[in-house]
Design brief:
about 300 residues, alpha+beta, seven-stranded mixed beta sheet, 12 helices
Amino acid sequence: MADPLSDVISLLRPHAPYSKLAEGSGPFRVRRDDVAEVFYCMQLFGRIRLELDGKSPFVLNAGDFVLIPAASAFTVSSVDPPAPPNLRSRPVLGDDGIFRIGTADGPAEVQQLIGHCRFGSPDADLLVSLLPDMVVVSGQDRLTALATLVRDEARADRPAGDVVLEHLLQVLLIEAFRSTTQTGATPGLLRGLADARIGPTLRAIHAAPQNPWTVHGLANEAGLSRSAFFTRFNRIVGVAPIGYLLHWRMTLAKHMLQAGQNDIGDIANTIGYGSTSAFSTAFTRHVGTSPTRYAKTVAAA
């Protein structure tokens, strides 16, 4: 059975991670406005208040994990004691490699592992749009272990470290997404996979993108009427069924063109186009350039 979540995560190609340990005591508030990548935080002990722009603030307790696939700006502050409204703190790197926030002396009252990573996919924005905008998971020891492995591997200089990190990050992302219980809040892939009717159609598309799918055929997979299926898919996934199919086909085509291991005719057959010309027309309309020119562009990059 096809696993659309694994497909999406593997095509995102997470890489170049950065992670750090941060400790704090006393009142503190740190503001970040320069984040343009995946952000995750594992709260190791104590409590912190996390506020993402445009969202209600919430408290991370010991053992909580938060993952934001497309972070922009956020504020982290102390809970015990609360930070004064105008306080601005600056993390200071200690000799032990740990960043200190708030009061410099005395034992730490909170500690968290914070990490960032980037996606190498040429369709990262589209793929990220299929994922929840935020995931919060509590009490999952597996996530703690994975986050620690990512940190250790990122700091070590071992053979094949980049390959190991990419796979660790893939596992971390998958584990975080499948551990969350808040998939119903945001339309997207996870919400679709959790739906008893829409999930089978998503798996069918990923298992056989070359099939000549129609809304009627996908509705049969879901056991719904055509109109009921179309409405439900659009509401739960956030895009229309054929729109999702087209985006997924073009994403696969981009990755195959980027790899340079298939000619255009093979790619056309693999993703469900009966002729090279039909594929070239659809690709050009969707991407804005022909497959041949796209392949030359990514090869020269």
